[in-house]
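Query form — protein Long-chain fatty acid transport protein

QUESTION: What is the three-dimensional structure of this chain?
INPUT:
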Amino acid sequence: MKKIIATAFLVGLALQVSAQSGTNSPYSQYGLGALASQATSFNRGMNGLAYGFHEHSQVNYMNPASYASVDSLSFIFDAGVSLQLTNFEERGKKINAQNADIEYVVASFRAFKHVGVSFGLLPYTNVGYNFSNTQNVNAFPSTSSPNATYSNTYSGNGGLHLVYLGAGWEPFKGFSFGANIAYLWGTLNRNSTNSYSDSYVNTLSKNYTAQVKSYKADFGVQYTYPIDRKNELTLGLAYSLGHTLNAESECDLISTNSQTSVSDTTRYVVSNSLELPHTFGVGLMFNHNNRLKFGVDYQLQKWAKIRYPQLNPVNGTTSYSLVAGQFNDRHKLTLGGDYCKGERYRGFFSRMHYRAGFSYASPYLKINGQDGPRELSASLGVGIPIMNAYNNRSMLNISAEWVNQSATGLIKENTFRINVGLTFNERWFAKFKVE
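ANSWER: The structure tokens for Long-chain fatty acid transport protein are given below.
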């Protein structure tokens, strides 16, 4: 009965994930939205460190080769939620925003000898923002309309999510490889409205919509070299296929008469307009006596050559077409580690995991011709064992993360996020004998 309840609970969580947005950032109005972390709960305590890790009791989606290390007698479910508070600062003005959402639901089990399988639902990008500004029409108000103002309002919602099935195989000791095949879907909605206090001036709205129904493919390799009896070094490699998405981007240009409310709409459509970048990852993980693990990851996302649809008014003619030069390649470096005295110890604190991590990511957006925000982040986390009479393998993973995004002349963001993940690790495949 416990297994049925847990399964039904996690399925219910999965149905809620795609209906939420995990950001309030104005930067999510660009590209595919704010890039979501695809790390699960134990990775997040190390700020997303993943490529070299292969855990027998945790799901590591970011390198599918790790599935081969899953315990042969376990069925693992992992569900995560986050709560975040973000402070926005621009020109000396500050404002706070907060949200909470269900992040992911993943599972893994051993299908055959040396073959692990994983499946689940994860976010890829998030879109969520709503802000406006109001100014005088003229720097020096005229006597005919001294209080005339105009307002620009910007809002957006949606994002991309993926449901995946993956497998990892260890053909010989120390070497494994794997792959994830995912269905990627979602809707990106963005709106900007320009209105005037003068009722004789039309209101102009731009509604941007893109619907995505495509696939995503990830591949990974891990090789573990035993240095001596107590120490080993793991090299992890990962690659995500970049390709054009099956998406149509639409732009509705709507001019509304403020007095009569009569609208004139012009629609523009661009087919096969969105792309995923080729993504490369490499990581090293050092393991001392299965107690202390620390490592480094490097990730490269090839955004620079990707074109994105843009509305272009030129000499009285408006076009909606793909434009290059809106992105930079994104480089991300992550350092982190995990310490646990020993999972076989009887003491509660001896079985706890203590984690920390730090990351730097270079700007990949270009905003009005200049580089967008670079990202600095750091995290601390703990893995708390759930111990009772019938199960001592499940774990509650909690982490606190700080993320700073900033660029000269642009909005500064400071986000404090709490991530909570509950890993159910049940011994489902054991056969017991009674003598």
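ADDITIONAL NOTE: The CA atoms of residues 72 and 113 lie 8 Å apart.
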